[in-house]
Amino acid sequence: MLASGSLYVYALYAPSFKSRLGYSQTQTSAIAVIGDLGLYGVGPLTGGLADSMGPKRASVFAGSLLLVGYGLLSVGYSSGIESIKNNKPAPSFLAMSAFLFLAGIGSSACYMAAFTTLAKSFKQGRGIAIGIPVSFFGLSAAALAFVAQKFFLVDSDSLFNLIKDKGAQELDTGRFLLFLAIAGGVINGLSLLGLNVVPEPEIRDAEQPSSVAPSLLQETDNTNPTEESSLLQDSTPTPTRHPRRQVLNVSGTAFFLDRDAQYFFLIMLCLTGSGLMIINSISAIVEAVAAGEEYGSEPGHKKTPLATIQATHVGLISISSYVGRIMAGFGSDIAMSRRGAQRIDVVPIATACMALAQVVGMFASLRWLYLCSILTGFAYGGFFGVAGTIVAELWGEMSCGQNWYVDYVPQL
């Protein structure tokens, strides 16, 4: 999960694409969108791959694409710097977009390899069993931002000898992208040692809590017992097989036509897209707010480098997303077992947090922008802490990878 969230640190090196390769903000944003297209848009295919071929093969596929995608990005960026020094054009932003697209597909396959393993191995306490590992998907950006701050933040003049502002620091983007390539390949390679689906014994319907209201689940029940058959079953001493509450395999056309799946799709469309917009653009937002406030222009004021502020926002979003995922998964399990609540009750709470984050972002100064990042991460993580579990429990774990990423697409 830590390796699958590497696309969320795009905001760290996006400013280098603008300042060093000469890309416009529109081109930089287009690269992010195409990378997200690889992560989310191709998700149904990588989910189906993990469902049909197993998590180990999906992990090998993921590691290969991460190694190639980020490796080509590193080479493209470094060669672009040399080209600009020699008064030659930088690589096309479309080429860089294609490289990030490959990394996005690799991240998607990496996530699905881990998610399908969890969903198919655990049927009780899924909120915790899935929520805690998935939380590391959100934490990955904070971990990578920390690594970038400690090992890849260097003096600008030592890199380019073009900086008027001596002592300024920025990310060594070429080396950092190479690190992402190697780390993604190695982590997925190591996952082959222990990534196995170990199904739990089947549990009875009465023992398994539901993610949603019974009325939603009744639509998927193909049996319609009469009053007479119910009385006969009650008076018969022989044991009967209890049907599972959820349908084992709702996928394809049946999933698209399912009313509850359509509602869930709309929730994803309204909630997660706005959060992803902030996550991918937080560096540009910080730059815009800082420029509007004439940040660091006061006499005698020692300003914090914008690169450090941007990395702090990336870390805050990541950490709050991590906390939100754990709280949603763990809290929903407790609420279901002790309070009779439903797992889907987390969704309105996450929606309210995301709406508040948008309002804060509209009016925030550079100081209060931190609150926008925290609320965004908390809402985004809280929703995804339970969303995958809801999909697995309501429509079955047999095709949960494919179904989950079908609902993932609306983020684009």
UniProtKB/TrEMBL annotation:
Keywords assigned: Membrane, Transmembrane, Transmembrane helix
Family matches, as Gene3D superfamilies: MFS general substrate transporter like domains
Cellular compartment(s): Membrane
Transmembrane helix in keyword set: yes
Stretches with biased composition (Polar residues): 208-239
Residue spans crossing the bilayer: 60-81, 93-115, 127-148, 176-198, 263-286, 306-323, 344-362, 368-392
Chain segments carrying region Disordered: 206-244
Descriptive protein name: Nodulin-like domain-containing protein
Domain spans labelled Nodulin-like: 3-160
Taxonomic superkingdom: Eukaryota
GO CC, one annotated term: membrane
Membrane topology, as annotated: Multi-pass membrane protein
Origin species: Podila minutissima
